[in-house]
């Protein structure tokens, strides 16, 4: 009985994992024209478009999806360019700072990235709970220090 449960649970888990992987890998075989045709067909059925309307909608959809492809390509190139600039900046800083200073700089940058990534959630939580998250100790005044100044 226990073995059957383990087998069933492992099968369910593996099915879930495969489904998740398949959902995460986009089907890149669709061209902008394919996407436009599919969207147009859906609108034609849903909105009862005439043939004239459908052809105009399809032309509009083709233009839209071509623009989307160009936009995503430009975004990808901009991200790569920004990444290269950041790396060059890091290399220049490394030449200027001492190893200890550079390590401290990297630690601060890591904390800032975490702050940006998770900060808003924790900040809202901290305000509700009245307690600061340890990650933010460098970003906020100490409560005791604030009370001593009064």
Mind sketching the topology for me?
Elements: H1 2-24, H2 32-47, H3 51-96, H4 99-129, H5 143-149
> Could you say how many structural domains there are in total?
2
Strand runs, count: 0
- The residue-averaged pLDDT reads 77
State the assembly state of the protein chains: single chain
Distance between the termini: 68 Å
State the helicity in percent bands: over 70%
Protein architecture, described:
The chain folds into 2 domains: 31-96; 98-140. By secondary structure, the chain is mainly α. It has helices spanning 2-24, 32-47, 51-96, 99-129, 143-149. It is 82% helix and 0% strand. It is flat. The longest helix has 46 residues, at 51-96. It contains 5 helices and no strands.
What are its keywords?
single chain, 150 residues, mainly alpha, 82% helix, 0% strand, flat
Short characterization:
This protein is an all-alpha fold. The protein has helices spanning 2-24, 32-47, 51-96, 99-129, 143-149.
